[in-house]
Design goal:
Layout: E1 9-10, E2 13-14, H1 18-28, H2 39-68, H3 73-77, H4 82-90, H5 102-117
Antiparallel strand pairs: 1-2
Length: 126
């Protein structure tokens, strides 16, 4: 028997230990797999995500109001035209006003947060 030092190789056969062995057994026999769902941690994380989304929603409302009442034609139009809104966000509208794009940047931040939140928002309660 040829045992290589510091490895789990005997000849050309890999000997599994620990997580690798357990994963192999559970994968081959899913009926014996017992995994924690971390229900309270998942729900806690969802609560934090909700709180973040609520704060972002409030920011978005404030940005929208600021744009509508700005007196600037593009900023006012951004409430009805996503393209104008996105141009404001990218700075390609030429205003040079960093506040002008805050609404679009907030929309993009919300988009990412909702992607993170949505798949988990209907998890079963523990």
């Amino acid at each position: 028997m040829n045992i290589h030092p510091n490895t789990n190789l005997i000849g050309s056969i890999f000997i599994m230990e620990g997580y690798a062995k357990l994963a192999s057994i559970m994968g081959a026999h899913p009926e014996v797999a017992i995994l924690r769902r971390f229900g309270s941690l998942n729900v806690r994380n969802l609560l934090y995500l909700q709180a973040e989304l609520i704060a972002l929603e409030q920011t978005l409302r404030a940005c929208t109001e600021k744009n509508i009442t700005s007196g600037d034609a593009d900023r006012t139009a951004s409430a009805r035209d996503w393209y104008t809104l996105s141009r404001l966000g990218s700075g390609s509208n030429g205003t040079g006003d960093p506040d002008a794009g805050e609404e679009w940047r907030t929309v993009l931040e919300i988009r990412e947060k909702v992607k993170e939140y949505s798949p988990w928002s209907s998890i079963d309660q523990p």
